[in-house]
Design goal:
Radius of gyration: 20 Å
Structural class: alpha/beta
Oligomer: single chain
Strand order of the largest sheet: 9-14-13-10-11-12
CATH topology of the largest domain: Hexokinase, domain 1
Shape: globular
Largest sheet: 6 strands, mixed
Number of strands: 14
Number of domains: 2
Strand content: 15-25%
Helix content: 25-40%
Order of helices and strands: EEEHEEEEHEHHEEEEHHHHHEHHHHEH
Distance between the termini: 19 Å
CATH architecture of the largest domain: 3-Layer(aba) Sandwich
CATH class of the largest domain: Alpha Beta
């Protein structure tokens, strides 16, 4: 095929998180090539609506005019209804692509869950470049689990579909109760409930950035912001040891729940910025700790996607499949 006959498409990928909203301009062709042209990050909390966020983007130095994209795929941290609506639990506004002020902006647009995007990212260049945390023997056509903590805890599953490739399935498992298993951990749970006013201590609250704050506060008596907590990490840090243990636990439980024989991929800002949580001995020990399924867990490889734009790559990968179908 000549260069002149290659059809190029433009994709606007977005990853709307509780802290930051990321945007990317991608180019794609029917041969499967996906190229990143430019990115833009904007603080989510500084705007009062999705339309205001788009106005900020349009007024920035972003390389792609919003209305010129062949498709926009918007990943958002929350459950998505009909590929058009989401009320994110950790953002003060909702996203509704059927509203006039947004509907008329895009040529074609879809909403997907942010960890659905992370799941598709496993098939993109950033997924192929993922770092190895624990070795294993992955099943070629096995289910892939994707998990990661940032502002909250996200989960998704990538399921092989014969003749199609992979289908990403969303989850809101981060809102499930976290499992505490010892007297000291039960004391931490009570401490967290008392100090936070939260009765439901979920995975979202334990392995996210805010979880680091409460773990450190419980263990040391010092109430610090998550960035200051991680700045004090050292091989001897008890806070680091607990964070690694808890992260290993949620990863193990999800790998078993999804039977992730194709591997488990960890994404999200907590792991990307603090890889020592995953390389700590407590992570491996907790991940493999099962009296009945330890042999199965030992065969599940664990990877980390440390590219913080991975959600953008996943959204773009999904958009490319739609455009080239």
């Amino acid at each position: 095929m000549s260069v002149e006959s290659v059809i190029m498409k433009t994709i606007l990928a977005a990853d709307i998180g509780g802290t930051n909203s990321r945007f990317a301009h991608f180019q794609a062709d029917q041969n499967g090539t996906l190229d990143l042209v430019g990115t833009k990050w904007l603080p989510t909390a500084e705007v009062g609506s999705f339309s205001q966020l788009l106005e900020q983007l349009r007024g920035s130095d972003f390389t792609l005019p919003v209305d010129e994209a062949d498709i926009a795929v918007i990943a958002v941290a929350g459950p998505v209804e009909g590929e058009m609506y989401c009320a994110p639990p950790y953002i003060s506004w909702d996203i509704d692509l059927s509203r006039k002020e947004t509907k008329n902006i895009f040529q074609q647009a879809l909403l997907i869950n942010d960890f659905v995007a992370q799941a598709y990212a496993c098939r993109s260049p950033v997924g192929l470049a993922a770092g190895s945390i624990l070795p294993g023997k992955p099943v070629t056509d096995g289910v892939i689990g994707v998990i990661g903590a940032g502002t909250a805890l996200g989960k998704a599953t990538l399921v092989p579909v014969p003749g199609y490739g992979f289908l990403a399935l969303p989850s809101e498992g981060g809102h499930a109760y976290f499992s505490f298993i010892s007297q000291r951990e039960f004391a931490f749970q009570e401490f967290y409930q008392e100090k936070s006013g939260q009765h439901h201590i979920t995975g979202n609250l334990v392995v996210s950035g805010r979880g680091l704050r409460y773990i450190h506060w419980f263990l040391t008596g010092d109430e610090l912001e998550p960035q200051k907590v991680t700045a004090r990490f050292s091989p001897e840090s008890e806070t680091l040891a607990w964070a690694a243990k808890f992260y290993g636990r949620v990863c193990r439980d999800y790998a078993l729940e999804e039977l992730a024989l194709g591997g488990l991929y960890i994404a999200g800002g907590v792991a990307a910025r603090n890889p020592e949580i995953l390389t700590h001995a407590n992570f491996r020990q907790e991940f493999l700790d099962s009296p009945t399924m330890g042999h199965l867990l030992a065969n599940i490889p664990v990877f980390v996607i440390d590219n913080q734009d991975s959600g953008l790559w996943g959204a773009a990968f999904f958009g490319q499949q739609i455009l080239m179908a």
